[in-house]
Amino acid sequence: MSVEIWARRLLISSTFTQATMYVVRPFITYRAIEINAGATAIGLIGAIYALFPVLLALKFGSWVGKYGEGKFIVFGNISLILSCTSLIFANNIFVLAAATAFAGLSHLALMVGGQTMVALRSAKSDYNRLFGYYTFSASLGHTFGPVVAGLLAGSLSNGMPKHRNYAFFFAIALSTIALLPTWNWRRSAPTVKAAEAQSNTWAAAKSMLSRKEISFAVFISMAVSSTLDLIVIFLPLLGKERAIDPAVIGLIISLRAVGSMGSRLILGKVTQHVSDKALLISSTSVSMFACIGMVYTSNSIVLGALVFIAGFASGFGQPLTMALISHRTKADERALAVSARLTGNRLGQFILPMAAGLLANGAGVGAVFWSMAALLGASLVASAAE
């Protein structure tokens, strides 16, 4: 089945946007290590990435319904270019934290705009297929971004990158390419205007989340996205602890994305034979056991295999929850529903890195991977109850 022109443009932009983010996130960790930040500070910086999204995601959903999803994507791409540029000058913990927060805000605008566009411009019968393609494009970016950045940055004998700024210059180039196919959307109108009742955004979101089927989907999405985020944040720290080269860590992070690409590409066909609920339960179980396995290996090949398995299994979770939420909301609710889901994701990504940083500081980085398994176990219960 062919993909419409708007979807092709979105998928191309999403690929380069996500490549940018997966260059930036691990190199923020390396930059923090370089300026002598400890595990707690690294966790805090990781949490700051999600601070503005937690505060603004619901409001962004309301604004997307008012101003249009295309405008938000253009805004997000421009602000991402600026945030990548600011990281080059992040020579202390405060500037690094501010640049990280700016990157998180940019990414939020892109996610709200992109997911709303798919939810509103696709037929319901195409949700699994197109959300699968959309998240596949993200995984494609996650695959090549960290590998190329790791090669460009090089490495020193102490497990640190040799040329950190090369990675940030690469991120600027990627985010500029992401802007190009979306530029014409800067004047586009909303596909569907938000419901008038959404003028009170928090009340509308509270009402929506009171529906059990929506709140469960939001929690499952939060658990899966937070786990993947913790892997990206703490794999560089695990690599330094176990003397694994940064280029190898970049490759391992990419293997997670390769796994997710595989599952997202076949999602539409798999859900023709397996129910969404059964797929959520089985994939979450596999991811949970893979995270436990990461605690017990110092071998980069075994670690890479486990990260790949976790990526493949967790790759089903995000597009499935996007489709579930879109199926269960009306057209004029979907921008807000997408934002409610992203608020849950970013709330997890705000709270959990701070907690994980404290845990790593006191019990070692391996304890962080145990916490990921516990979180996935909780989402497994939610999947079974949904």
Q: How would you describe this structure to a colleague?
A:
- By secondary structure, this protein is mostly helical.
- The protein has one domain: MFS general substrate transporter like domains (Growth Hormone, Chain: A).
- Helices cover 80% and strands 0% of the residues.
- Helix 3 (51-67) packs parallel to helix 5 (93-121).
- The longest helix is centred in the first third of the chain and has 30 residues, at 5-34.
**Global outline:** globular
How many DSSP E strands? 0
- Label the structural class: mainly alpha
Radius of gyration (CA) equals 19 Å
What CATH calls the topology is Growth Hormone, Chain: A
The CATH class turns out to be Mainly Alpha
Element string (H = helix, E = strand): HHHHHHHHHHHHHHHH
Low-confidence segments: none
Domain module count: 1
Profile the largest sheet. Answer: none
Average pLDDT score: 82
Q: What is the beta-strand fraction?
A: under 5%
* Distance between the first and last residues' Cα: 31 Å
Number of helices: 16
Q: Name the helicity range.
A: over 70%
Set down the secondary structure blueprint:
Layout: H1 5-34, H2 39-48, H3 51-67, H4 69-88, H5 93-121, H6 127-153, H7 164-179, H8 201-209, H9 212-241, H10 246-265, H11 267-270, H12 276-295, H13 300-314, H14 317-327, H15 334-363, H16 366-385
Helix pairs in contact: 1-2, 1-4, 1-5, 1-6, 1-7, 1-9, 2-15, 3-5, 3-15, 4-5, 4-7, 5-6, 5-15, 6-7, 6-10, 6-14, 9-10, 9-14, 9-15, 9-16, 10-13, 12-13, 12-16, 15-16
